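Figure S7 source data.
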Amino acid sequence: MNQQDDSTGRICSRLTPFGTTIFTTISRRANSVGAVNLGQGFPDEDPPEDLIQATIDSLRAGHNQYAPMPGIDSLRQAIADDQAGRGRGTWAASDEITVTSGATGALAASILGTLEQDDEVILFDPAYDAYPALVAMAGAKSVRLAPAAPEFRITRELIEKALTPRTRMILVNTPWNPTGRILDDGELGIIADICRQHDLICVSDEVYERMVFTAPHRSISTLPGMRDRTIVISSMGKTYSCTGWKVGWACAPPDLTAAIRAAHQFLVFSIPQPLQEAAARALNHHAEAWDETLTDSYQARRSFLLDGLREVGMQPIEPEGTYFILTDYTPLGDENDIAFCDRLLETVKVAAVPCSIFTRDGLGTRDYVRFAFCKPLTVLEEALKRLRGLQRL
Ligand code: PMP
Ligand code: GLN
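Tokens for the predicted glutamine complex:
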């Protein structure tokens, strides 16, 4: 799936192991065969109309030059209010919030701005593919831990065995793409304890913070002693159905924010102002109402796809959050997850993502594939109709 071609010779050695991202590969292949694309996770619907209008108004008002490097005041204040309003702690717009190029930009600035060469970063597999690549770009080392499927529970023992004098950061993702798990208080407590004891930075990727179905989301930054060492990352894309806008942010105490900005100023410098204005509008005017509609409609799609996958003979894990379902496909075939996804694409024309892509050397959790359910029910129905035609091998 991670295709290399013969034009890769000039890619630096830090990046060659990562090939082409699964998301580029899967969408290209899905488009080329006319597949229903439940691979790359992006909603099919548009953001609310007034957000599009706010962007247009801002362009017309002449906001076409560089925005301030850390983000416009109104968006940073809207992020601060949104966080505080949901009990996520108070972050100062002035020196604790930075607007970035999506959550990816926030991750990049956090990693490049804080890590030294050869520092070690603990990641939990299956891990979002950008994490190890960004760690490698910083000249640091990913230490990838693999909690056992299908529970994917993080334990103290697992982390403690991996600690070395060079451990500098733990990266957590809750709700967790691709497992669909929400880390519980016990797991967050263990990670927080270890961060405090070993003076580690915690990067907390919370992009699916509003997509929760079975338990509330809790940010590790709210645990005792964690606010001073945590970088909380989120973005507009998932919640407001505008993944293409790439407006994200990082909330962190002033010393970590200074490190984030030290990198962000040279990575992209600033984010398009019209999109920032729309983002501020979204957080100020839509957050609650959109949350409710979003949760209801995503609950319905989640149940629909879960039932459908069970009907075709798979064994899906019920996601607690995110808009992904990880499913054991092995009742339908003996091949590995990459071969299974190839077969899905080629025979029934449905795109899914092999879970092993998110693991160390691509060798872990080979019995699972990931389906995205951020699609209209009609699209999910069409995917299921096609999956019903899949032969068992
Ligand atoms: N983190 C996780 C866990 C993701 O799934 C994604 C993809 N949406 C990102 C970060 C990147 O987010 P953005 O598109 O805002 O850069
Ligand atoms: N986060 C999305 C996913 O996991 C895709 C991100 C991307 O395309 N880079 O599917």
